[in-house]
Write a structure and sequence with these properties.
The chain is mainly α. It folds into 2 domains: 108 residues, no CATH class; 49 residues, no CATH class. It is 78% helix and 0% strand. Helix 2 packs antiparallel against helix 3, helix 3 runs antiparallel to helix 4 and helix 7 packs antiparallel against helix 8. 29% of the residues are buried.
Length: 168
């Protein structure tokens, strides 16, 4: 188990310099936002989730498999925040990210092996499918969440959810 934690720490090293610069800039902005407002459990959880989410994206950029754990913990934070805010599609968005991005990375022994060869391009057909899928998910999720819950912004939340689900 100790070797695994050493492996995870090693995953945070050797990134491109730009990733570190982006992280420190983002971290500074998040700290300023945190201390400029009343500090509650929800603002602290949001701060942790956002910080880990940024690290997750940067780990993906650096092709480091720790992005799976970072994404998983970040998603847990955002699920708690989404529940508190009655933003149920945000919860769905995070679950979609976990199922389509985080868990596959954690369960794959070769996720970060030869990453360049695994990058796919969009064709006109795949663009069409993605755009249509986003539109269908937007309409269905906005309608259902508006009718079945007390979500205060169903159509705005449906935009983020539909893009996230399709992207995942």
């Amino acid at each position: 188990m100790l070797n695994y934690f050493k492996f995870l720490i090693h995953q945070l090293q050797g990134w491109p310099k730009q990733n570190y610069y982006l992280f420190y800039f983002s971290f500074g902005c998040q700290v300023m936002t945190l201390v400029a407002n009343p500090i509650t459990w929800i603002t602290v959880v949001t701060f942790i989730g956002t910080t880990l989410g940024v690290l997750c994206v940067l780990a993906i950029n650096a092709t480091k498999s720790i992005n799976g754990w970072l994404g998983l913990v970040s998603a847990a934070c955002f699920i708690a925040v989404g529940y508190q805010a009655k933003n149920y599609l945000s919860i769905g968005e995070q679950i979609a990210y976990v199922l389509t991005l985080d868990l596959p990375v954690l369960l794959s022994a070769t996720w970060n092996v030869n990453v360049a060869a695994k990058i796919r391009s969009f064709t006109p057909k795949s663009w069409t499918v993605a755009i249509l899928a986003t539109g269908v998910v937007y309409l269905v999720s906005g309608t259902l969440i508006g009718q079945l819950t007390d979500d205060p912004r169903p159509w705005i939340d449906a935009i983020a959810f539909s893009i996230s689900l399709t992207a995942g």
